[in-house]
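As a representative case, we now present a protein record of this kind.
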Amino acid sequence: MNRLGWSILLLLVLAGGAFALMLSPGTAPPPPGAASAPAVAPAPARLRANAAGLIVPVAGIAPDQLVDTWHQSREGGAREHQAIDIMAPRGTPVLAARGGRVEKLFDSAAGGHTIYIRTADGAHVDYYAHLDAYAPGLQEGQLVRQGQGIGTVGSTGNASPDGPHLHFAVKHMAAGERWHQGTPLNPYPLLAGTGGGG
């Protein structure tokens, strides 16, 4: 097998292992009266956040593998892309880039299966689109921790079936703004660790 074949095999094994972890049952609830753990646990050591506080939200993808697709022309120049597309095989686990609360699970013609997660401080909403599926049991209002499996890469919505990927966007939220509002930030420098996203 050549180097490319081994690389693809390694990616598939890593994606399968991460997906299996995503499906594994949780721990039993603590007995009554016992101190409860915080709702958002810290990320495991292998998923340490960068200086911006985010991890790459696709299992098996390193920051240096990302491509900045922010402001690329779409629909023949009719609009600009205000996100980053992270290419990965269909079914690859999608992870929460940072902890927060699932504000909205939404199906749309453009984004397909989508998730909006608002950070604990309310300052940002992270948007995950074109998902093949949500993680089992994921629901609106649920707290998620950074690195938790929230879905799988797909090509729902207006994405090409030949190019499964995660469309990941970050929005800065002013007080009172709803899940679909906010000011878009370039997620590439935030994920790649190259600076701010403004």
Remarks:
- The radius of gyration is 17 Å.
- The chain has two helices and eleven strands.
- The longest strand covers residues 124-134.
